């Protein structure tokens, strides 16, 4: 072990565990700050709002609403057969904002801001969402 290893802050959680949770466990792991209550899907060592360092792990809701999206026509290698598809930002029910992708959404007219979606674990990297057919229709 080198001296630089010892100078790194100790994390009770590893980013690899979070990525593994997406693909192998079919769940979204996140953090809740016991000091200010912020719920976040972003891995980190300290609260992004108040700086508290004792973040507690929590399981995030697999359901949420699309808060932003774009259609990707030029994907990375792992998604060559899926393009075009939507790259989405989702506000999860109960807190946490996470980025993911939606296969078979090929044009802006096929998706709406505020649309209900749910996490669909799959073999591809990243967080895959699909339309939430069980969600109550709005408007
Ligand atoms: Zn906080």
Topology of this structure?
Blueprint: H1 3-7, H2 15-25, E1 28-32, E2 39-40, E3 56-60, E4 63-72, E5 85-92, E6 97-102, E7 116-119, E8 129-131
Antiparallel strand pairs: 1-2, 1-3, 4-5, 4-7, 5-6, 7-8
This protein binds zinc ion.
Zinc ion (ZN) is lined by residues 33, 35-36, 38, 47, 49-50, 52.
Strand order of the largest sheet: 6-5-4-7-8
Bound molecules: zinc ion
Give the SSE string.
HHEEEEEEEE
What is the class of the largest domain in the CATH system?
Mainly Beta
- Assess the beta-strand content as a share of residues: 25-35%
The low-confidence runs, each spanning 5 or more residues with pLDDT under 50, are none
User: How many domains?
Assistant: 2
Largest sheet: 5 strands, antiparallel
- What portion of residues is helical? 10-25%
Work out the helix count.
2
Number of strands: 8
Distance between the termini: 60 Å
Query: What's the CATH architecture name of the largest domain?
Result: Beta Barrel
Mean pLDDT comes to 87
* CATH third-tier fold name of the largest domain: OB fold (Dihydrolipoamide Acetyltransferase, E2P)
Radius of gyration: 17 Å
Which structural class do the helices and strands define? mainly beta
Shape, per Cα inertia axes: globular
Q: What is the compact description of this entry?
A:
With 139 residues, the chain is mainly beta. It has helices at 3-7, 15-25, and strands at 28-32, 39-40, 56-60, 63-72, 85-92, 97-102, 116-119, 129-131.
What does this protein structure show overall?
This protein has 139 residues and is mainly β. It has two domains: 11-60, no CATH class; 63-131, OB fold (Dihydrolipoamide Acetyltransferase, E2P) (Beta Barrel). It contains two helices and eight strands. It has helices at residues 3-7, 15-25; strands spanning 28-32, 39-40, 56-60, 63-72, 85-92, 97-102, 116-119, 129-131. The strands form two sheets. It has a five-stranded antiparallel beta sheet with strand order 6-5-4-7-8, with no helix packed on it. The longest helix is centred in the first third of the chain and has 11 residues, at 15-25. 22% of the residues are buried. The model has no long low-confidence stretch (mean pLDDT 87). It binds zinc ion. Zinc ion (ZN) binds next to loops.
């Amino acid at each position: 072990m080198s001296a630089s290893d010892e100078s790194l802050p100790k994390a009770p959680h590893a980013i690899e565990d979070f990525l593994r949770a997406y693909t192998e466990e079919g769940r979204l792991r996140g953090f809740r700050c016991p000091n200010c209550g912020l719920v976040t899907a972003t891995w980190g060592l300290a609260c992004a709002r108040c700086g508290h360092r004792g973040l507690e792990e929590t399981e995030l809701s697999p359901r949420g609403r699309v808060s932003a999206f774009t259609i990707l026509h030029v994907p990375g290698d792992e998604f060559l057969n899926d393009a075009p598809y939507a790259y989405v930002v989702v506000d999860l029910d109960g807190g946490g904002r996470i980025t993911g992708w939606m296969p078979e959404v090929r044009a802006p007219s096929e998706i709406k801001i505020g649309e209900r979606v749910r996490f669909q674990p799959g073999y591809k990297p990243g967080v895959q969402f699909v339309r939430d057919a069980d969600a109550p229709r709005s408007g």
